[in-house]
Amino acid sequence: MTLEKLMEEAKKFLSGPENFVAAEDALRPELAGMRIYEEPIFGVAAADDPLFAELRRPEVVHPGEMLPCDWVPGAKSVVSFFLPFTERLISSNADGAQPSEEWLHGRIEGQLAMSALGEHLKKFLEDEGFAAAFPTTDARFKMLEPYASNWSERHVAYICGLGTFGLSKGLITERGMAGRFGSIVTDAELAPTPRKYSDPFEYCTKCGACQFRCPAKAIDKSRGPALAKDQKLCDAWVTSTRRPPHGPHERVRFGCGKCQVRVPCSRRIPNAAKK
């Protein structure tokens, strides 16, 4: 098994209907058929990378964070992927305090598409004779506290070489931070992706653009990068955007994402942070 095979499989999957808004779910007729994600990027870490154990430190994530070998006995690799939102979706959310309807589709239908991709890649690995787990939909996945789960996708992506954190607690990748993360744990042995950074906030310039974009006033860079975001204020604002159930699936939509658009790290690593 190679990472290239997984990437090709993901690319094929995302050309299918899961990556497009279905007509019956569209919040406006013109959003029917809207593509949600561009092509993903992937990173790999060895399952025994010592940084996974570091996530159990209370000041990092939570003591209940599961290790790769907890998900898959004999695990050798963790594969993280980032799905960047399309330009249409990102630019739609630039103005106003309320999330655009395109962004709401990205948050809700986008999460469903990400989960479907993860399940597809898990089955692909299993069909190739490897054990695999997709923590997002695994019955063992759980929230340990309001803002901590037993498998943090952003921290896993950091370990897998995909990027570093910003003041908004999003992860800045070579494709920016506007999108969603997923990961697979497997006993397939894949070559780890070199981490091009040593500091968790290396790609963040601390410019404060996300602070001024936040309608909830939840970001304050004066507190330092690790404490800049008040998650309770953020969550209260996101909850206030909740819409009534819509469509045949009666999906409830809510979101924000203002800190991820019209900022230097929206679609790329800011120039000032590049080496």
Q: Structural class, from helix and strand content?
A: alpha+beta
User: How would you describe the shape?
Assistant: globular
Mean of the pLDDT scores? 96
Number of helices: 8
Number of extended strands: 8
Beta percentage is: 5-15%
Q: Into how many domains do the coordinates divide?
A: 1
Global Rg: 18 Å
Q: What is the distance, rounded to the nearest whole angstrom, between the alpha carbons of the first and last residues?
A: 32 Å
Low-confidence stretches: none
Strand order of the largest sheet: 1-2-8-3
What is the N-to-C order of secondary-structure elements (H for helix, E for strand)?
HEHHEHHEEEHEEEHH
Describe the main β-sheet briefly.
4 strands, antiparallel
Q: Helicity range of the residues?
A: 25-40%
